[in-house]
From TrEMBL:
Signal peptide: none annotated. It comes from the Bacteria. The gene is curA. InterPro entries: ADH-like_C, ADH_N_2, ER, GroES-like_sf, MDR_fam, NAD(P)-bd_dom_sf. This is NADPH-dependent curcumin reductase. Its EC number is 1.3.1.-. Residues 17-335 form the Enoyl reductase (ER) domain.
Amino acid sequence: MPLNKQILLVSRPQGEASVDNFRLVQTETPPLADGQVLVQHHYLSLDPYMRGRMNEGKSYAAPQPLNEVMIGGTVGQVVESRHPRYAVGDWVVGMGGWQEYSVVDANQPGVLRKVDVSRIPPSHYLGAVGMPGVTAWYGLVKIIEPKAGQTITVSAAAGAVGSAVGVLAKQRGCRVVGIAGGPDKCAYVRDELGFDDCIDYREHRDLKSLAGALKAACPNGIDGHFENVGGMVLDAVMLRANAFSRVALCGMIAGYDGQPLPMLNPALILINRMRIEGFIVSEHMEVWPEALAELGELVGSGRYRPRESIAHGIASAPEAFLGLLKGRNFGKQLVKLV
Ligand SMILES: NC(=O)c1ccc[n+]([C@@H]2O[C@H](COP(=O)([O-])OP(=O)(O)OC[C@H]3O[C@@H](n4cnc5c(N)ncnc54)[C@H](OP(=O)(O)O)[C@@H]3O)[C@@H](O)[C@H]2O)c1
């Protein structure tokens, strides 16, 4: 059986997470029992939610246990099988964790999903045609409920979720305005993803300036907003929100290191009769087939070309993850393992 490099969570962060919270170990993969398969991971997905799992505190999901392999989505190939439904060479998506191999009890429902890599590269099953893509689809389609001609804004617009939100909203005939950090990200959002406009929030250091930029980019106000960041970005959007507008509250990455993110003017929710709704994509498994079908078609046909940031080797995962929390990724953050 092959040797397996793994990254464990060994301590919980106080404030900012650091590489010292993780440890690289090497173990032997155990021999397979009946019903099990051995998966070699080609890509590991790094996602902002992992920062929340590093904390002890109560949240919508249980904390990551200490001294165990960090949780994470993976795509890879079956290299050994003692399960009749899986053959050596099959491509599968699962929650293999921060390691090179995983032994999976394939009888458990939903633990592995076979994927077709003939039209869609395997890595996209962790991004645009995976959990982040479905997240975008759910928040946009089920919460924002966009109509043609409406103006939709999205923060962290160059990222895995944000880019898919914009592409899906353009498909529905909306005016789409992204908010992202830096001129390169904004150029990608506008020129390659086809958003109508993108605001570089780093050029707008205060609320008045950011709200002014939103006013210029959204002359008819904002009908729907997809929030990934929180803080000043959300405050500025609230100032431009139309009556009966909707906000899909997907993430608040600006506060993931623990500091509270107050909302400046919640009275605007009443004044504008707004609907603000948080959601967790894994609680809406019923939409996954429909969402994945649309996203798979967009990516497979080349109409949506998702961008990726790729780190190499399992040892690079902690640094790449910390970079994601600082906006150093450009598109879906992955670790290539093979
Ligand atoms: N509710 C759910 O079920 C669900 C599921 C998946 C993801 N999410 C959330 O969706 C959001 C996006 O996730 P993703 O996987 O697509 O990540 P991502 O956008 O690919 O990467 C994170 C991006 O967030 C921005 N960012 C990081 N720190 C920031 C800060 N302090 N202030 C402002 N922006 C910051 C950076 O972009 P800039 O350089 O443009 O600032 C960074 O590139 C996250 O909030 C995540 O937690 C929620």
